[in-house]
Design brief:
The chain is mainly alpha-helical. It has 9 helices and no strands. α4 packs antiparallel against α6. The mean pLDDT is 84.
Length: 222
Amino acid sequence: MFRDAALVAGKDLRVEFRSRVATNQVAPYALLVLIVFAFALDPDRGFLTKAAPGLFWVAVVFSALLAIQRSFTIEAADGGRDALRLSGLDPSGIFIGKAGAVAVQLALLEVVLGLGVVVLYNAPLGGAVLLATTCVLATVGLAAAGTVFGVLVGGLRVRDTLLPLLLLPVLAPLVLGATRATEYALAGTPADGWLWVQLVGAFAAVYTAFGIVAFGPLLEES
């Protein structure tokens, strides 16, 4: 399973590296979201700093939608989905590979967005361990849930509009937990944020376990 996951993840990451969609489109889009919020809330710099955790995760979610759609758009071209079904690869490995590739892209994007939040919103950096743990678990949850719903709508013509409608309600608890944990980390009171990290980790584990079990049937039916 993990060998197949490495093959799929390597393939997706090579495609993204060669196309440079993530660097030329997704990253600028995410930074533009932060800049728009900065201009909209600039008259109240104090509120902008307080809202930095929520705005950060909103930008991450919007970028995740683009990355997930891109991941399955690749498979839709030239019979790629049929080739994936007939490849003989472990469906669980395919899920882990595609989710892993999305997670790597999101992790790099979060580093860029984090720097943007510090510069644009004057957000203080604190609680490094809590912040890093929150980002890792939330990234895993976003990638896992997105991969499940990505394969579910991947074969539909309305996938570009249907994916956000299905995915955003599912991600709401995870984003809420990540936002609250980030708030405590930036406020310098990390001890109060670990309960929210547990919530994020629980949802990430559920999404990942469900994807490992359900990805194969969903791929066959889609």
